[in-house]
Prior knowledge:
The chain is an alpha/beta fold. The protein has helices at residues 12-22, 68-80, 122-141, 147-152, 164-167, 172-177, and strands at 5-9, 29-34, 37-41, 46-52, 60-64, 84-91, 100-105, 111-116. It has a domain at 5-122: 2,3-Dihydroxybiphenyl 1,2-Dioxygenase, domain 1 (Roll), CATH 3.10.180. The protein has 6 helices and 8 strands. Helix 1 runs antiparallel to helix 2 (68-80). The two termini are 38 Å apart.
Amino acid sequence: MIDHITLRVRDLEAAKDFYRAALAPLGYVLQMEFPDGAGFAVGGKPDFWLFQDPEARPQHLAFAAPDRAEVDAFYAAALAAGGRDNGPAGLRTEYHPDYYAAFVLDQTGHNVEAVTHRPPGGAGKAAKAAKAARKTKKKMAKGPKGLAKKVTAGKAPQAGKKKKMAKGPKGFAKKRMAKGPKG
């Protein structure tokens, strides 16, 4: 997973204005500013940074959108903010059947894209899938059966007691661990 990315721009002030408007439909806000840079965030921590560089070269950058309506809103906002059309919102079936994206060029010439991979109405399905994944993750975090209760009750398992999970593969604990690594 990417923590953050920096895009070099020729005119920082113009870029801040453009991205402030273009990324608003995707939930981004200008979070931090420095003399030669600015950070945009969704939910607090900036993950998209701009940096002033008169020699900046055009790049391609795609932002995930939750659904097709957000892609459409990004496209309209980016054009209204001075972006140039580089591909209107629509399906790009050459990538896959549900690749829905819009492309604009910013003032530096960066190809900025908003994309969703979900079918129409797919955001609801994705939300259900995310909820199921969180539920599974919660179950897995409990560890072996009964261990979560003992640990939370302040009775962590003692090192000397044998547990099936601590042994590993059949016989491994006795044969390998007692003697140390082979070699």
